[in-house]
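Schema walk-through. Below, the input block comes first and the output block second. Nothing else is stored per chain. Lengths vary across the set, and this one has 352 residues.
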Amino acid sequence: MKIRVGITQGDINGVGYEVIFKAFDCEEMLEMCVPVIYGNEKIAQYHRGALEDAPSFTVVDNATEARPGRLNLINTNAEECSVEYGKNTAASGRQAQAALRRAISDWKAGLIDVVVTAPICKAAIHSDSFPFVGHTEYLENATGEKALMILSNEQMRVALATTHLPVSQIAPAITAELLEEKLHLLHRALLRDFRVTAPRIAVLALNPHSGDEGTLGKEEQEIIGPTVEKLRKEGVPCFGPYPADSFFGEGAYRHFDAVLAMYHDQGLAPLKALGMEEGVNFTAGLSVVRTSPDHGTAFDIAGKNQASASSMRQAIFTALDVFRNRKEYDEITADPLPFTQRRIEHERLPRA
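--- output ---
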């Protein structure tokens, strides 16, 4: 049975629909999965009309009605609103919020298998009814699980110890407890989600020159270094802390399966510089498989038919891969005790 991929429309004033339609402009993509767009029929038609040779879609009331071999769309907010390319509007925020909530609700009900989210405008979607700074924080709240943001391309995987925090709040947020949590999540994601059999994790320093023996900060000596050493002794293959500039500048990332950065721009600036168009944002640690393109709403080119679908297409590929990897990993590592116990009990039965 084909994997059912729920795709949220994202911000309707950005490039979300453009990259969704472009991602499915070939039959091969439709053969790989059953795509279900969570959005607005009229808005989708408006965006489709601005593109050349965009695939058509079928409106369905429920994900169970989704048809293989074509795009399917569920109306999640029938509110009348206009597309205003490049603008942050309350209406676009409500549309994005409704699509996301319905997709997660359908995933919980088992109607779809994975979720791929088109980019949102955080300022537009943030409201009293959506008090979250991004997808990751909303998904943590919706699932009751701890998440880890991992961005990847062909060159590297970068996970973030802190995500959407002001720079002034980063240092106080770096604690031994936080790093232990993130490193355990990252290690498990490499094993289960990416099927890396013997992963190696690099941990970056917070301060320039790894604090220069305390001269430029003591987080490396007091928190990061001791935590890395503790977890390595416990079987988590992590190493560091490494100064971020030389680590990326000298290409040391090539020797590791993943990198744990201390904050958003520290890890994502080099990753996007090396391959932004192929980048994927994957939310590890959650029971739901969720991926997204690693670019934003691209308001500056919205409506101009200039957006590349490479990142969206790769996000779909990654979601499919992770879903299959988890299934395979769980089957391989399933507890064999019930079978063993049955065999012992059978051997104890009296012989005829």
